[in-house]
Amino acid sequence: MDPSEVEFLGEKQLVSIVPNFSFGIIHLISGSVGPFRAGLPVKVPIWLAISLKQQQKCRIIAQEWMDIEKLNDSIEAEKRSKLFTKMPSNHFMDEAQMLLMVAPDDIPDADNIRTAVKDIWDLRMSKLRSSVIGFVKNAGTYAKLDHLTAMEINSIRSLLPDALDIMLHMEHGGKPTVLQSLNTTM
Amino acid sequence: MSFLNFDSYFSITEILVTEERIQAEFEQSLPNLGYLCASSKKDDIAPKTKLDIPLWLADALCRRGESIINWEIPKIFKDSYKEILEADACSVELCKWNQYFYELGLRLPRTTTDDNHKLAEFLLEVFKSRFRIIMDSEQNPFSTPLLRGQLSTLEKKLLVQGNSGKLQLLTWLNKGVKHIETSDVIDNIRKRKRLVV
Asked: Residue B135: its chain A contacts at CB < 8 A?
């Protein structure tokens, strides 16, 4: 799965904007957005917010968690804990990436937030790597994926599932596994 | 798609793996097949002749009811080589031992199920301890060519796939918001339509 596809899923998250135009409710398959009143905040999906921002029809309000103190607290918690800590959003990396890219002028302290988010990302990625290596080496039967976000899970998708598949194959001594024989009979 | 699933007639991996020669001792005499043994001038192959034959042939000869040959396990799966791998699997240049180390080990004819199971278990251990190399070099998609000599084909395939995933992630991190590209299939349909017109 391409990271931009994960980003596409992340675009469905809601964000508050302050429109500078008035418009009725827009009915979409995924739900209705609006009505838009100039100057009053309204929650819309990120993809719409980005599009409106690019046309300079709105101002984006930073997500609640995009606050340097809260992020620094998360960094500390992440450092202290052996396990993954809960992130404010299942798509924190992609949301931050998109919103900071499109609207750095609307988000206060954008540069520091970008660094903090990157710090959290790096911390979690190295944690993820070492736990994957440990998982493979000790032949764990299951892994707890609590609080892992979509982008992080996607980042090991290119390697881990296939490695586990190879290991399963070897465990069965090269014979077709139960799953494969199921597939062929179906 | 599975990396180790090569039980297909047309699988190139299967063909390459079974090309490996293993030492076999004939139990029965084979009339008129003397030309297989380059050093003898007789017409027949006598019993107790030792010959290196490809795995695909050995496999077929073993499968018959009465065994025609006695094959010997390749030296890379013997105890002395096992000890090397047990000592430090990561520093072995597996590619030089055999390009298809894992596949060959799993593909060897089945004599006793117990033996085969032990070998498979051993391969699993080797793979597990060498997984670290793949994981580490996956981090750097512009990998050093030195490493290529160290990995077996299976590990290389895994590494290439991991690298491409990593590269995608890096480009995404650098570029940020970009358009999702049309899939190749759709592009080709358009081209085909143009050709028809």
From this structure: 129, 132-133, 136, 159
